[in-house]
Amino acid sequence: MNFLRALFKRKSVWFILIGIAVFVYINNSSLWTKKSGQPLLLAHRGVAQTFNIKGLQNDTCTAESIYKPEHSFLENTIPSIKQAFKDGADIVELDVHITKDNQFAVFHDWTLDCRTNGTGVTRDYTMAELKKLDIGYGYTADGGKTYPFRGKGVNLMPSLDEVMKYFPHESFLIHVKSNDPEEGKKLAKYLSQFSKERLKNITVYGGDEPIDSLKKAMPNLKVMSKATMKSCLIPYIATGWTGYVPKACENTELHIPEKIGPFLWGWPNRFLNRMDHINTRTIIAGGNGSEFSTGFDSTKDIKRLPANYSGGIWTNRIDRLGPYYEKKKK
């Protein structure tokens, strides 16, 4: 104890400590680091019917509690994706499930029972059989009194192949909904047919096991899972104050809840610059990560972002945010 007291009485020690503090501040401050340009807008499920996300569980049937419809689009369909890009999306997120005939159906839920007039899971059906289902069957905004999309969703469930062919140049974030490593291998086999240039606009995320098997088969593809996030961010939190970025952060995607961002060294601009330098995309989502699919869905939400934020933004309402940022360009 006496040794420590004597040590801290020495001016040289205080100079060293102050010097370290100044270094950490300057090395991680965004005050002198500018990142120009508009943010990237990531449209979750394209243009979709929205619902209250509070209290959601994995098995919650969200189609049974949608808000009063403001448009006619159903999530994860080609018309929905097309409109999302028209509204200003830079990237569209979509969900995929394997089918009985080893295609990938673009559909959100693990089971068919909630949204469609079918039952069971996609892997029990061929893609042709899934197309016969009415994916608008289960949507209601008034507790089942009316079903505004019933009868309008037949033949609207697309395959991933259809989406890729219809949008040959656009950017997608593909969500593998299962935790089956074989599904990751099958998706890798499918994506391997595309050129390196096309794959620059494709990112895949999902469960640790399918993403791990996908990454092993396609090491240059940008991916994300809980495991990849932890392997990047945990060591970064420990060493990022020095400016060092772990190799595990390279060529991936990070989804950062807005409440977590300020705890990352260099947030926001210097952190974004560091990630850009290693070909990693940063997407900010709403909340603290505890709720499902929380996004920035209104101009009021945008006010919570750091000033001049230019990273990626997760939104469930591209129909609102796209026009907002388009006006800002003018």
Descriptive account of the structure:
34% of the residues lie in helices and 13% in strands. α6 (181-191) runs parallel beside α8. It contains 12 helices and 9 strands. With 330 residues, it is an alpha/beta fold. It has helices at residues 2-9, 11-28, 78-87, 127-131, 160-166, 181-191, 196-199, 208-217, 226-239, 269-277, 299-302, 318-329, and strands spanning 40-44, 91-98, 104-106, 171-176, 202-206, 222-224, 253-257, 281-285, 312-315. The chain has one domain: Phosphatidylinositol (PI) phosphodiesterase (TIM Barrel). The mean pLDDT is 91. The longest helix is centred in the first third of the chain and has 18 residues, at 11-28. Strands 1, 2, 3, 4, 5, 6, 7, 8 and 9 form a 9-stranded mixed beta sheet that branches.
